[in-house]
Amino acid sequence: MIRFKPSNDDEVLRANKIGLAVTTNRVFSQLPELPENITVFEVRTKCHSTKIAWYSSPEIRTLSYCIIVFNLPQRNRSSIDYTNYCMDFGKRVVQHPQFHSIKCPKKAKNPPLLETDTIFNLTPGESYLIYVTANLSEGKPLPYQSLKVKMHHQCPEEVLGAESRDQSTYYLN
């Protein structure tokens, strides 16, 4: 008999299903390996951008990460479950009504301990829900913990022109 327990209070309140993967092999053929700590950190948030960080996957196979961003409505009545790690992160994610953007950078050959990325084109004062997923070329993606960020309302020192340079690598809704 195996007992499963949510790892944090938010998950205790909202958890209603789990996904369980079992194998007799050392690695799952269709799933990437995640680090022990799957936290996504908010490094720096301004008015139009936020920099995030997460621990690099120990996966030795070819891997990419996807950063998926959803806009959270002001009334906080969202159809997005913050802890829904069983969400379909496939191609249909861009059809979600609160989808904002997705970016899928490749993992470096000699990755640092912490991966980082900056998300651009965000709206001042808005809140966003950010998922980072680890993806093999074949198989299902696995998500890190989700991160909710609240953008600053006023940033007089922030220059929008400099922040928008990298927008061509995003797929915006």
From TrEMBL:
Gene Ontology CC annotations of this record: extracellular region
Keywords, alphabetical: Repeat, Secreted
Pfam families found in the cross-reference section: NDNF_C
Domain of life per record: Eukaryota
Protein location: Secreted
Domain Protein NDNF C-terminal: 20-155
Protein name per Swiss-Prot or TrEMBL: Protein NDNF C-terminal domain-containing protein
Organism, as annotated: Musca domestica (House fly)
